[in-house]
């Protein structure tokens, strides 16, 4: 019966993320007994155009990072407005959330409040229907398992070393299944650990926020060479089976007052940085570079595309922040061939899906992504399958908040059985 999908109950509480910081969990129950829980993630490296998360700013508790205001917003404003609504009417739900907030960047109730509620409603509807979330969101076409982009050396805002580039990723493309690709990634991760410990000592295998190692490196090439060593030591081919990608997060090492980028101990102009990226792409056949310039410089992104003749996927994250307005600007300027999709950057599932649809309509590659502050919530694993990827970024194959997503993808692959297709088999980059 349709009334089974009616939202009966909405509640929220303060829980902890992977950095030990508070975050909000929202719980939604339907008349039919469906339950949805969703936890808002948090980023360390944030684009300035992201929707704004709400924190308490009471320094006496959690050093000002508490989310009791966000929790109270759910209890006092969101819950009463959503009770009685059909949980399947996701756009209506999200429109109500947006109207309650009333700001362009979710700053009134908080993007963390908004996304946790929006996702919890979708999960409650799926649970009421007694089908997996990926199936509820994507229908019968949802059977493609994404290619994981695993950040196994951390730098920038995710680590305490001197590497300017934030993420050094391995991308196991050349495999027949997601489970085989993940196995290869784990084996490479283990070889990297052995290599780093032998070369730099035991402290080099400490891990950063996303489970990757944070060795005492300063040079970008040094980190890339370590990845290549580990890939080969594990018995895999760097060209055909496992590629390398970077998340530069260049806004983090851009010095605004000087209009230069500080990388590898040097200060480079945007033109010099462009040449630097071109050299790395040529040397290492990089698959993708995310945020290679700061978040306002659409023109340099476009120049990198032109001058590399699209041999590398130029990815926007801080540039586009899962925001349709920013994506349209990037499209108009020819700035990107790929985009990061982080639901909490925009605040609702509907807006996230609209962003994905726009990207796909312009043949822009979508990469569903975690944040550095994560939880055991595995929603993005389902989202990646629902929209047919082709990529997912969710960290190294270590730390429970990262493996929660990989394990869920393994479960989905098992659930789909012979219908499961690995994106690496059908996409060519």
TrEMBL record:
GO terms for molecular function: magnesium ion binding; phosphopyruvate hydratase activity. Mg(2+) is required for catalysis and for stabilizing the dimer. Substrate binds at residues 158, 167, 290, 317, 369-372, 393. It is found in: Cytoplasm; Secreted; Cell surface. GO terms for biological process: glycolytic process. SMART domains: Enolase_C (SM01192), Enolase_N (SM01193). (2R)-2-phosphoglycerate binds at residues 166, 342, 371-372, 393. It catalyses: (2R)-2-phosphoglycerate = phosphoenolpyruvate + H2O. The active site is at residues 210, 342. Pathway: Carbohydrate degradation; glycolysis; pyruvate from D-glyceraldehyde 3-phosphate: step 4/5. Residues 7-137 form the Enolase N-terminal domain. It holds the Pfam family Enolase_N. The keyword Cytoplasm applies. SUPFAM superfamilies: Enolase C-terminal domain-like, Enolase N-terminal domain-like. InterPro entries: Enolase, Enolase-like_C_sf, Enolase-like_N, Enolase_C, Enolase_CS, Enolase_N. Mg(2+) binds at residues 247, 290, 317. Residues 142-428 form the Enolase C-terminal TIM barrel domain. Its main location: cytoplasm. NCBIfam families: eno. Catalyzes the reversible conversion of 2-phosphoglycerate (2-PG) into phosphoenolpyruvate (PEP). It is essential for the degradation of carbohydrates via glycolysis. This is Enolase.
């Amino acid at each position: 019966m349709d009334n089974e999908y009616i939202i009966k109950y909405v509640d929220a509480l303060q829980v902890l993320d992977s950095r030990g910081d508070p975050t909000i969990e929202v719980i939604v129950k339907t008349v039919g007994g469906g339950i949805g829980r969703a936890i808002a993630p948090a980023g360390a490296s944030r684009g300035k155009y992201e929707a704004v998360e709400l924190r308490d700013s009471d320094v006496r508790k959690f050093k000002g990072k508490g989310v009791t205001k966000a929790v109270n917003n759910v209890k006092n404003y969101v819950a009463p407005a959503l009770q009685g609504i059909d949980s399947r009417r996701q756009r209506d739900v999200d429109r109500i959330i947006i109207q309650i907030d009333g700001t362009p960047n979710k700053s009134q109730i908080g993007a963390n409040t908004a996304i946790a509620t929006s996702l919890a409603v979708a999960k409650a509807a799926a649970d009421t229907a007694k089908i997996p979330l990926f199936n509820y969101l994507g229908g019968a076409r949802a059977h493609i398992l994404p290619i994981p982009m695993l950040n196994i050396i951390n730098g920038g805002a995710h680590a305490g070393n001197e590497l300017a580039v934030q993420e050094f990723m391995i991308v196991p493309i050349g495999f027949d299944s997601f489970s085989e690709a993940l196995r290869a990634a784990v084996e490479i991760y283990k070889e990297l650990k052995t290599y780093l410990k032998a070369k730099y000592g035991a402290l080099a295998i400490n891990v950063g926020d996303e489970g990757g190692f944070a060795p005492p490196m300063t040079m970008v090439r040094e980190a890339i060479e370590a990845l290549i060593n580990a890939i080969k030591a594990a018995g895999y081919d760097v060209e055909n089976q496992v590629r390398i990608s970077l998340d530069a997060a260049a806004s983090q090492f851009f010095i605004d007052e000087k209009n230069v980028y500080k990388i590898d101990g040097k200060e480079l102009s945007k033109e010099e940085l462009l040449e630097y990226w071109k050299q790395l792409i040529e040397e290492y056949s990089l698959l993708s570079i995310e945020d290679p310039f700061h978040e306002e410089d659409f023109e340099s992104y476009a120049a990198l595309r032109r001058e590399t003749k699209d041999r590398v996927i130029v990815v926007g994250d801080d540039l586009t922040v899962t925001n349709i307005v920013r994506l349209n600007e990037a499209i108009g300027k020819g700035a990107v061939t790929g985009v990061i999709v982080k639901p909490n950057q925009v605040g609702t599932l509907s807006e996230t899906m609209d962003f994905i649809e726009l990207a796909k309509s312009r043949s822009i590659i979508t990469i569903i992504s975690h944040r550095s502050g994560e939880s055991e919530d595995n929603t993005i694993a389902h989202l990646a399958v629902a929209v047919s990827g082709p990529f997912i970024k969710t960290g190294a194959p270590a730390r429970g908040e990262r493996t929660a997503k990989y394990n869920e993808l393994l479960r989905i692959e098992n659930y789909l059985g012979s219908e499961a297709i690995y994106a690496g088999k059908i996409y060519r980059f």
